[in-house]
């Protein structure tokens, strides 16, 4: 799974990462912690800022890919609910495509604890653009297996209610990933809810996705995303 994730998940939209880096004031002498870093898709885009980058990831197989892909970052085992870092040790924290997985009652106080006074938190996500015709075809196949996309943003209400962080400032953009039919099936196979299906059912789902890819008018074809970022400050 980690190898497929590394190969088929896209990097984050460069203009969105640039905005986040500016908002977090990343640069030499600063420390940013990328929580739930996975294979380091965002981590590697933070390294060129010159900041010290610490990536925290709970899954061993993901950390192996991360360490190989991003030798310029420090990779640590740990989870958002129990970060392996001292109090007030980070100037900034990033969370990319993972906030919806956290136990926020535990994770938000941990993020607050690790941030220095005046520190900032950035949450990034990029989801499939369900206004796109191809994405609608894909959704018709996998919709029964994946949660309502609106649920992935419920963290915003919990963050606001926590009183630990200030008001969110948002940015949004769109981008495309070029795929062929087999790549489309591999990409959809990296969705955790699809990856966890029984083997035979998963194979049937991915065969249907592959057929959608083969029916496209050209190859490679664009696979559209909506990318979002939100930044807020630690409340001291």
CATH class: Alpha Beta
**H/E element order:** HHEHEHEEHEHHEHHHE
Q: If you average the pLDDT, what whole number results?
A: 95
Radius of gyration: 18 Å
Give the total of domains. Answer: 1
Brief account:
With 236 residues, the protein is of the alpha/beta class. It has helices at residues 2-8, 14-23, 43-46, 60-69, 104-114, 133-142, 155-162, 181-189, 192-195, 199-214; strands spanning 31-35, 52-57, 74-77, 90-96, 115-128, 169-179, 221-233.
Report on this model:
The structure is a single chain. 38% of the residues lie in helices and 25% in strands. The protein has helices spanning 2-8, 14-23, 43-46, 60-69, 104-114, 133-142, 155-162, 181-189, 192-195, 199-214, and strands spanning 31-35, 52-57, 74-77, 90-96, 115-128, 169-179, 221-233. Helix 6 packs antiparallel against helix 10 and helix 8 runs antiparallel to helix 10. The protein has a seven-stranded mixed β-sheet. The chain is globular and about 55 Å long. The protein contains ten helices and seven strands. 37% of the residues are buried. It has one domain (2-233): Vaccinia Virus protein VP39 (Rossmann fold, 3-Layer(aba) Sandwich). The N and C termini lie far apart (39 Å). The model has no long low-confidence stretch (mean pLDDT 95). It is an alpha/beta fold.
